[in-house]
């Protein structure tokens, strides 16, 4: 274990488009979507759209097929596999839904690289219709963050992960994202952390305008190739730093025991 937690947004970060728009557009329901958008929250609209698509004769299999051909930069999957192989703890925080994300990640063969997917629940009901629910029940218990949409505050999820990191001996977080919803979690990061906003996207604009509010290191990225490069370089740098720290610690301990301070317990004699 490397002690690093990598948190990925999904839409326009792991995949190159927004999965909600992708499904609606590919199944020919763009006009209806645009017509209904001003009348309800995005998350509720997606649930409604799944009903409309079913009425138009589209099946769960049609949705799965569309998801399996979602555009993704060819270096994203290798980047994720490398980070996982280097011992990082990878997680997703996304305002898409669990059905879309699981279908795509399984299809790409990288579902098992992620220890956790935090997103809006989604399931196929008894009428074979995909239902999409909000992550936070905003009618019953609103999250109260005014930077985030009513159904999800990504910053709160980051805080929850931070609270468990210490117990698990994990020290640093990297956060990768593009959207407005990725600004709030960027503000929760600490000095040793790192945020990678996608260049010229809303999160990048917000971070640049509010640089003094962001404690973490910031590095922009443009496409999957750049993402892979920066990500692996960061992991490498931290690994080198930590192994140097470790050898300094070991040196100190050695010096102490040589000096006869008795700081280290003596090994028991091996019985023959
Ligand atoms: Mg996104
Ligand atoms: Zn928030």
From TrEMBL:
It comes from the Eukaryota. Gene3D superfamilies: HAD superfamily/HAD-like. Keywords: Hydrolase, Magnesium, Metal-binding. InterPro entries: HAD-like_sf, HAD_hydro_PyrdxlP_Pase-like, HAD_sf, Pase_PHOSPHO-typ. Its cofactor is Mg(2+). Signal peptide: none annotated. The keyword Magnesium applies. Pfam families: Put_Phosphatase (PF06888). This is Inorganic pyrophosphatase 1-like. It comes from Solanum pennellii (Tomato). The gene is LOC107022852.
């Amino acid at each position: 274990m490397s002690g690093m937690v990598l948190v990925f947004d999904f839409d326009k970060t792991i995949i190159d488009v927004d999965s909600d728009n992708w499904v609606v557009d590919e199944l020919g329901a763009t006009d209806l979507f645009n017509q209904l958008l001003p009348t309800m929250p995005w998350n509720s609209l997606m649930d409604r759209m799944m009903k409309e698509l079913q009425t138009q004769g589209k099946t769960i299999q049609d949705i799965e097929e569309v998801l399996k051909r979602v555009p993704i930069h060819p270096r994203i999957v290798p980047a994720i596999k490398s980070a996982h192989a280097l011992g990082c703890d990878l997680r997703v925080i996304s305002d898409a839904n669990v059905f879309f994300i699981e279908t795509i990640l399984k299809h790409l063969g990288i579902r098992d690289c992620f220890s956790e997917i935090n997103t809006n629940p989604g399931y196929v009901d008894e009428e074979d219709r995909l239902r999409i629910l909000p992550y936070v029940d905003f009618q019953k218990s609103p999250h109260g963050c005014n930077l985030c949409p009513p159904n999800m505050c990504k910053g709160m999820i980051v805080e929850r992960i931070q609270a468990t990191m210490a117990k698990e001996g994990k020290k640093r977080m990297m956060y990768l994202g593009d959207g407005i919803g990725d600004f709030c979690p960027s503000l929760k990061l600490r000095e040793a952390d790192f945020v990678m906003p996608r260049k010229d996207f809303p999160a990048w604009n917000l971070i640049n305008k509010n640089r003094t509010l962001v404690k973490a290191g910031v590095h922009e990225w443009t496409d999957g190739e750049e993402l892979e490069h920066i990500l692996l370089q960061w992991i490498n740098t931290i690994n080198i730093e930590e192994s140097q720290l470790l050898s300094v610690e070991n040196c100190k301990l050695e010096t102490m025991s040589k000096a006869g301070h008795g700081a280290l317990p003596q090994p028991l004699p091996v019985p023959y």
